[in-house]
Specification:
The longest helix is centred in the last third of the chain and has 20 residues, at 309-328. Helix 1 runs parallel beside helix 6 (309-328), helix 3 (213-223) packs parallel to helix 6 and helix 4 crosses helix 5. The chain is α/β, with parallel strands linked by helices and 416 residues long. It has four domains: 16-32 and 185-327, MoaB/Mog-like domain (Molybdenum Cofactor Biosythetic Enzyme, Chain A), CATH 3.40.980.10; 34-55 and 162-183, Alpha-Beta Complex (Molybdopterin biosynthesis moea protein, domain 2), CATH 3.90.105.10; 61-145, Molybdopterin biosynthesis moeA protein, domain 3; 338-410, Beta-clip (Beta Barrel). It has helices at 16-25, 166-174, 213-223, 238-251, 269-276, 309-328, 382-386; strands at residues 13-14, 33-37, 50-51, 61-62, 66-69, 79-88, 102-106, 118-121, 125-128, 131-135, 144-145, 156-158, 179-183, 187-193, 197-198, 209-210, 227-234, 254-258, 278-284, 286-287, 291-297, 300-305, 338-342, 353-362, 368-372, 389-393, 405-410. It has seven helices and 27 strands. The structure holds adenosine monophosphate and magnesium ion.
């Protein structure tokens, strides 16, 4: 971590893995938590272990539509005829007597009365009035889901740090939980810098372009389940930039910007950052996305993404997203890498690790194949839209021939 005095130091080209590890060492999990209702829980992160107050299932019940009976009363060779005495519906248990050699009709999810111990599916029975002939099942307890067989009351169900997805929503409802304690949402304030940038909905004068990064970043932050604060486009003006940094640092746990962090930049971003915080400007051995800035602005963590649109998305994904995950209390996982056969040659200069945008699919034999999306310029944002994966090429790798096996990183939930 640099200090103000060496804030503009350029530590040389750093491998992305080293950069991720160094960045993660410098951030910690936010401590605040809050109660939310289950209805608002999707995407949130549990901040305490959660135990069940009930057994699951809460009572013995049938896994089939069929008949319930006592296994020991089956007497014939392969089938036995019993007398029907009632029905157990889901939500309406059978409450009658259980005479000898009797059975009840039972529906899936209906309670199995104490006294019966086995269920046979309807397809293996036949009815003649109240006489039901039942094909013998293999064992006592057939087609019964026992009370507590999934878990018993008091057992931990979800660990602190678990992100609530669709399955966890269902699991929580299954055990009757209506409120949970979750990590406070990480607040991220972001803005774009650059005199050439215009917001969408306005006319472009010569030399101007639309500010796309703010929208791709907004998409990424939304997918990452953080609370974002959009501070717009800030022109290349010293005091405007200073004001934006101060406002952002007051409002957020993380300040994120795009543009103005490259070597030789003519704008003021770097100067103001050095004056306002403790920021290091990194040169990463990755393509796209060489320049990146990181540090502290007041209490907030600062990440400065490069301005080129693909570079800003890739550096967000590779560097900022792990930081966001750690700060939110999630475990930072290694990306899933698969091998695939390259279907067209790739030109590459050794020197930087490259994340080429690729399309992963299966060929007619079911084997994984990958091709690039075409032009790989760091300003060609359509390459991100066409892609469903990165083709990861090592730092020292040169050109790659068609037919070679390459490492492919399928896009995960933040990019999909
Ligand atoms: P910079 O990192 O500010 O030197 O910008 C590098 C390149 O990215 C330049 O071509 C900028 O015009 C472009 N750029 C910077 N910010 C944005 C943005 N928010 N949206 C689209 N392009 C941008
Ligand atoms: Mg700029």
């Amino acid at each position: 971590m640099s200090t103000k005095s060496d804030a503009c130091a350029q530590p040389g080209l750093m491998h992305p893995t080293d950069a991720i590890n160094a960045l993660l060492d410098q951030v910690s999990v936010i401590e605040q938590s809050e109660m939310v209702s289950l209805n608002e829980a999707v995407g949130r992160i549990l901040s305490e272990d959660l135990a069940s107050c009930i057994d699951l299932p809460p009572f013995d019940n049938s896994s089939m539509d069929g008949y319930a009976f006592k296994f020991d009363e089956l007497t014939g060779e392969t089938a036995t005829t019993l007398t029907l005495v009632g029905t157990s519906f889901a939500g309406h248990p059978y409450k009658g007597k259980i005479p000898a050699n009797s059975c009840i009709r039972i529906m899936t999810g209906a309670p199995v009365p104490a006294g019966y111990d086995t269920v046979q599916m309807q397809e293996k029975t036949s009815a003649d009035g109240d006489k039901i002939t039942i094909e013998h099942p293999n064992a006592k307890g057939n087609s019964i889901r026992y009370c507590g067989e999934e878990l018993t009351a008091g057992t931990n169900v979800l660990k602190s740090g678990t992100q609530i997805r669709a399955a966890e929503m269902g699991v929580l409802a299954t055990i009757g939980i209506s409120q949970i304690r979750v990590k406070a949402r990480l607040k991220v304030a972001f803005f774009s810098t650059g005199d050439e940038l215009r917001p969408v909905g306005s006319e472009l004068a010569p030399g101007q372009i639309y500010d796309s990064n703010r929208y791709s970043i907004k998409g990424l932050l939304t997918q990452a389940n953080v609370e974002w604060i959009d501070l717009g486009v800030i022109e290349d003006d010293k005091e405007a930039i200073r004001g934006a940094f101060r406002e952002a640092a007051k409002k957020a746990d993380m300040v994120l910007t795009s543009g103005g962090v490259s070597v030789g930049d003519a704008d003021y971003t770097k100067q103001i950052l050095s004056e306002e915080g403790e920021i290091t400007f990194w040169r990463l051995a990755i393509k796209p996305g060489k320049p990146f800035a990181f540090g502290k602005l007041g209490k907030a963590v600062f990440c400065g993404l490069p301005g080129n649109p693909v570079s800003s998305m890739v550096t967000f994904y590779k560097l900022v997203w792990p930081i966001v995950n750690k700060m939110q209390g999630l475990t930072v996982k290694e990306p899933l890498i698969v091998k695939a056969t390259l279907t067209s040659a790739i030109r590459k200069q050794p020197g930087r690790a490259e994340y080429q945008r690729g399309i992963l699919s299966r060929d007619d034999n079911g084997e994984l194949v990958v091709s690039t999306t075409g032009g790989q310029g760091s300003g060609m944002l359509t390459s991100m839209s066409l892609a469903n994966c990165f083709i990861n090429l090592e730092q020292e790798q040169g050109d790659v021939a068609s037919g070679a096996q390459v490492n492919v990183e399928p896009f995960n939930s933040v990019l999909c």
